[in-house]
Amino acid sequence: MEHRKIMHAERLPYDGREIIIEGPIPPDALSRLALHPDLDAFRRPAEQHKALIEIAELEEGRIIAARDGETIVGYVTFHYPDELETWSEGGMDDLIELGAIEVADSYRSLGLGKRMIRTAFAGDQLENAIVYTTEYYWHWDLEGTKMNVWEYRSMMEKLMQSVGMVWFATDDPEICAHPANCLMVRIGKHVPLSSVEQFDRVRFRQRFMY
User: 98, 131 in Cβ contact below 8 A?
Assistant: First the structure.
């Protein structure tokens, strides 16, 4: 599969300066930037910065970031599913996970999440891929946003729907563990039917439900 990486950028006026939303960012450019200290939802900022560079180095990996000057204040990751996860079982080279999305607390009112995701899909560069995301309520910042699980779920659905991702059914145990969890998917217009059928087999492992 060809992994098309076409750099796109958007400028957002902010407090007398500009925030740059751009990507996919190459690893060498990422290494010259710093990560905002509030970006610690998944691991310590220094460790997360290293993880972002490692993802950008992958053939399929891509990082979309929002930066204020030379400081990354938000990012979105795309990569193959982890080998230990259900979604890798189909051995698909055109199945890409939209993984982590994180925005620093003081920048959350700017719509950076939606802008970064739209940048990721700009230029039809993911039309040859099935892009999915798994939303688990235990990953959500309910305390920081003061939302309940259903309000947060609605927010995440609207965010994903902004790039054409829709809810898909699955019998995956982790998704089924809580009714607020969900699987959202976007099937690119150049994805072959054979890949769609393989993905259906992955998301329904219990044959009696397929």
Answer: yes
134 phi/psi in degrees, rounded to 5:
-105, 125
d(CA 89, CA 10): 36
Residue type, 21: I
CA within 13 Å, CB half, 207:
0
pTM reported for the whole predicted model: 0.93
Give the contacts of 180 (CB within 8 A, at least 6 positions apart).
135, 137, 149, 150, 152, 153
Residue that is written with structure tokens 């920081």 in the block? 144
Lookup: tokens for 113: 């999440």
Cβ–Cβ under 8 Å, residues 59 and 119:
no
For the stretch 28-85, pLDDT in tens is 999 999 999 999 988 899 999 999 999 999 999 999 999 999 999 999 999 999 998 8
What contacts 23, CB < 8 A, 6 or more positions away? Answer: 7, 8, 62, 63, 64, 65, 76, 116, 119, 120
